[in-house]
Amino acid sequence: MNATSLATESSPVHVLVVDDDRDMVGLMRRIVERMGHRCSTAGSGEDALKYLATDSFALLVTDINMDGLSGLGLLEAARSSDPDLAVVMVSGLGDPRTAETALGGGAFGYVVKPFELTELQIAVSNALRRRELELQLRRHLHDLEAEVGRRTEELRRVSHETQVQEQRFRSLAQASPLGILYADSQGNFDYCNANAEALLGRTRTELGDRRWLAELDSPSRDQLETSIREAASGVPDAMCEYPLRRPDGSTVWLRSRVAPVLDDHHETAGVVVLFEDIGDHKRLEHQLRHQASHDHLTGLPNRRDFRDQLARRLVALEPGQCLGVLLVDLDQFKLVNDTYGHEAGDQLIVTVGERLIGCVPPGAVVARLGGDEFTVALTESSREAIVAVAETIRETLRKPVRIMGVELSLSASVGIGATSDPQAAVSSMLRSADIAMHQAKNRRDVVEVFDSSMAKDVARRLALTSELRRAVDDGLLRVHYQPVVNTVTQGLVGLEALARWSHHEWGEIAPSEFIPIAESIGLVHRIDSHVLASSLQQLAHWRAAGRIHSDVFMSVNLSASQLSNSALPELVHQLLGSYGLQGTSLCIEVTESSLISDIERALPIMRRLRALGIRIAVDDFGTGHSALSYLGQLPLDVLKIDGSFVAAIGRGGVDVAEAIVDLAHRFHLEVIAEGVEEPHQLARLRALGCEMAQGFLTGRPTDADHSLPTPASDPSRLPGAHPRSVPSEGVTRDEVPA
Ligand code: C2E
Ligand code: MG
Ligand code: MG
Questions:
Q1: Which domains does the chain have, with CATH numbers?
Q2: pTM for the whole thing?
Q3: pLDDT for 663-681, tens place per residue?
Q4: Can you tell me the distance from the alpha carbon of 162 to that of 530, in angstroms, rounded to the nearest whole number?
Q5: Which residues surround ligand 3, an ion (CB under 5 A)?
Q6: Is the minimum distance from the CB of 511 to ligand 1 under 6 angstroms?
Q7: Nearest CA to ligand 1 atom 10
Q8: Which numbered ligand comes closest to the C-alpha of 515?
C-alpha cells in the first residue's frame, strides 16, 4: 500500500499537526498534505488547544514530548472536548509504557520517531478509517436507539389505545340497555354485562357456567341454543323471541340476537349474544291485538273476533251437540238515542252488554256487532236449550234500566241460527240468525228460530226489491179506490186511494208487502207522490164529469218519512191548485208511530197542511204505540179504528171500538171504522156514533172505472150529495171484486 493510495481511500479532512520541533511539524505537514488532506499546524499543546476550540478537525497528530502541555495532556483535553477527534501520537520514546498510556488515553495510532514516511501515512490513514468506522458505528447506534425509542413509544401508544378502547367498550357494554354475553369458541360464557345478569336473573358466576342454558324451559332453551349454534357456524344474525322464566319465578319476554365474532383469519372465535327486554313491546302488541278484535265501548269481542270464535266452535262440534248463534237487537234503541242523546245510548249499550254476560251460560261468547246489535254463540245439547237461553236473554233485557236518571223499558228481538253440522259455514249461520232476527223484529220482543221458509221470504224480498224499482220507474203502479160511507145514510163521503202492484209473473203484490220494502229503500216518496197526484186528478175528473158530489174527499196514505219532508205542504198545494181542488178535498192518513217518531219536525208540517184546509187522519188507531197525550197536542181531524177492533165487535170482551169512538169524540175528532164486513158491525158503529165506515160491506177497493155506483140521472142522488140522510135498509152498494 503506498501513500497515494492511502490518501485517496479516505476523503480529504482537516488535520492539526502539533510539535515543538519546527522541522518535524513541516515534515508531518507535508506528509499529511500529500495524502490530500488540509493541514494546520501548532508549535505547542496550548496553541493546539486554541485551534481545536475555534476550528473543526478530524485528526490530531501530536508529538508527546513538548514543553508546557505535553502530547498526553493535549490528548486528554482534546478527546474530552471532542470525542470524535482521531488522535495519532508521535514520540521519540520507544518506551512501550508511554505507547500504552497514549493508546489507553484514546489515541488511535502511535508512531515512533524517527519514522518512515509510510509509517506516518499508515498511522494517519488507519486513524481516519477507525474514526470513520467509529463515527459510522455511533450513527448506527444512534439510529438504532432512535428506532428503539420510536418503537417503544409506538408500543406504549398502541397499548394505551388498546386500554382506552377496551375501557370504552367495557363502558359501552355496561351502559347498554341490552344484556350482553360473550361466549368463546368452546361455548364458555366469559363476559357478561350487568344487564345480562339482571335480565337473565343470574349472577356473573352463574352465567359463566354453561349449565344455566340447560336449566331454561324447553321452547326458550331450544330457540336460544339453535341461534347460538347458527351464529357459531357463521350465520350473521340469528334472532329469536321467547318468554324466559328466571330462577326467582318471574318471567320476562326476551328478544335475542346472536352474532359470530371473527378473528384475524375470519374464523369464528366466539359468539356475542344480545338480550333485549321486549315486555313493553309484547304488552303493546297484545293491547293492539285486543283493540283490533274488541269493541271499545263494551270491551266485548267485535264482529271479526266473533266470526273467528264461531269458526273454532263449529269445527269442535261433537255428535249430540248443537251450536247456536243468537242475534240480539234492541227494539227501540234509535228512539233512546234520539230522545236522550248518544251518551245515554252508549250507557244503555254498556248495560245491555253486562246483562248479556250475566245471563248466558259459562263458556258462551257474547260479542257486539255494532250499533244495538249483539250476538251470542253457545254450544248446548239441543236446540231447545239454546232457545231457552234466548228466552232468558229476552226476559233479562225487558227489566227496566235506569240511565241518566231516567227509567227506560226495553225489549229485544232475538233471532237464532243453530246447527249440529261441523261442516256448516260461519257465514250461513250468521245469515240464518240475521234472517230470524229480522223476522222477530217484525213482531218485536220475541225469539225466532231460523227455518228454511224464512230464507225463502228473504229471497222473495230481495227479488221484490229490484222488481219494485223497475215497476216504479216504468209507472206500473196503479191506484184503487175504496169508498168511505156515512154510517147513517151509507152515502159516499170519501174514497181512500190505495196503491196496487200487479207483477206480470207473481200476480198481485199486497201493499203491506211492498210498501215496507219501498220505505226501506227510500222509494216510498215516489209511490206516495204518484198515488197523491193520480187520486187528486181522478177526483177532479169525477167531479168534472159530475159523478160525485163536491163534498166527497180523497183520502191518501203517507208514509212516516213524509212527515219530516218540509217540501210536502208546497207539493200538495201545487197539486191541489193544478186540479182546481180545495184543501178540504184531501184527507191525509198517517200512522200513530210516524206521528210520534219525530214530533218536533212533524208538527210544523202538519200545521201547514192544516192551514191549506187539508184534514189529517190517524190510520190504524190503537195498533201502534198509543201515546194518547199526542191526541190533544197535534192538529188532527179523524181517527181510523183499525179493522181488528171492528172484527172483534160482537165477539164479547172489551169493546175497543166503543172506547176509541168515545176517546175521539172527547178530542173532537171524527171517526172512520175500517174493515167493516158485517151489517151488525155497521149497525153497532152507527149506534156508537161512529160517523164513517169503510170495508168490504160498503165497497171493496177497486179501479177508478168501478169505484163509483152508476151515476143516476137525478143529481140529488149523486154519491155524497146527502151524506147525513136517513139510512137505507141493508147494504145496497155494488161490490165489485178486485
Ligand atoms: P190502510 O191504509 O189501513 O188501508 C186499508 C186496508 O184495508 C187496505 O189494504 C184495504 O184493502 C183493506 N180493507 C178495506 N176494507 C177491508 C175489509 O172489509 N176487510 C179487510 N180484511 N180488509 C179491508 P191494502 O190495500 O192491502 O193496504 C194495506 C196498507 O198499505 C194500507 O192500510 C196502507 O197502510 C198501506 N198503503 C196502501 N197504499 C198506500 C200508499 O199509496 N202509500 C202508503 N204510504 N201506504 C199505502
Ligand atoms: Mg189508510
Ligand atoms: Mg188502516
A1: 3-133 (3.40.50.2300), 176-293 (3.30.450.20), 298-450 (3.30.70.270), 481-496+522-735 (3.20.20.450)
A2: 0.54
A3: 999 999 999 999 999 999 9
A4: 97
A5: 619-620, 674
A6: yes
A7: 701
A8: 1
